[in-house]
Amino acid sequence: MEAVRKFLARKNIVFSAKRYFIDAMGAMAQGLFCTLLVGTILNTLGQQLHIGFLTDVIVTLGKGEGAVTYTIGGLCSAMVGPGMAVAIGRALEAPPLVLYSLIPVGFATNFMGGAGGPLAVLFVAILAAEIGKAVSKETKVDILVTPIVTVLSGIGIAALIAAPIGAAASAVGRFIMWATELQPFFMGIIVSVVIGVALTLPISSAAICAALGLTGLAGGAAVAGCCAQMIGFAVMSFRENRWGGLVAQGLGTSMLQMGNIVRNPRVWIPPTLASAITGPIATCLFRLEMNGAAVSSGMGTCGLVGQIGVYTGWVSDVAAGVKAGITGMDWLGLVLISFVLPAVLTWLLAVPLRKWGWIKDGDLTLDL
């Protein structure tokens, strides 16, 4: 057993929830952002602003009726599997030959996983990376052995588990979306609070939404919850952190407050209650839907990705004939749910907590 422990330590193989479900999931979300989400944004910009080089076909695979064409954005989106796998491998500190070998593994796994492909990629990429790390530099022909073992083990594992994992993730996502359509008020509260809390915790709300394919009304509730946390903390802590904190949290991440939350959990009450209010307002009053990339549902106001995702969904729905057009009510709902209500509600909810001494001056200070 001691020999095994020494081998694992030498290979930097660490079996821990933090490495696999915090570090790896966070990296996976970045891989999603740099491929699928960026691709969606580029396609939308090209179509809406009539930018030729963004709408032109730059790659054609195949011939005749079976030919598949890609724009720049289309190519970005097509690389989502490799992007996630490589990001996960980097988070696991995989050596170069293992890291590059995860490219075909990620592509195959995402394809095999179907709608739940991102979650399948998470599991398969972790297993393939660790197996690759185990054999890395153990032979004199490492340049052959490591890539072959990584690719074969990864795609072999994907053939066994990618489809079931993808189907399960997709089923859970569909259930949440169905339940939100059936009970928009209560599910609006649950989804908004849970995804918002996940965004502030050191896990990836974006990866969770992507893995479950969370779109539609449920995606809108997720956007509401994330915005409540980010804008809420930004406004609530303005007296301590001023403009730098407003931007860092409002357009960056509310995760910056985790240290303060650990020291005084009561500071989490106002933005969480705000998310419980804005969630059902989004689902019941404004019928706010996220029909863009599912990863956008868990991004909130981070780089305005959540809002861009909602907009791209509107554009797609209009193009498909599902939506007649983008209305003033749509824009009003998006602005209120994303910015105005989280700011006002969180500030109001924080006032009595400061008076009661539950939140004291300095409790929300960031080291910026």
Automatic annotation (TrEMBL):
GO terms for molecular function: protein-N(PI)-phosphohistidine-sugar phosphotransferase activity. InterPro entries: PTS_EIIC. GO terms for cellular component: plasma membrane. Keywords: Cell membrane, Membrane, Sugar transport, Transmembrane, Transmembrane helix, Transport. Signal peptide: none annotated. The keyword Membrane applies. The chain crosses the membrane at residues 20-42, 97-128, 148-173, 185-208, 214-236, 268-286, 293-311, 331-350. One of its GO terms (biological process) is phosphoenolpyruvate-dependent sugar phosphotransferase system. It is a multi-pass membrane protein. Residues 23-365 form the Phosphotransferase system EIIC domain. It is found in: Cell membrane. This is PTS sugar transporter subunit IIC.
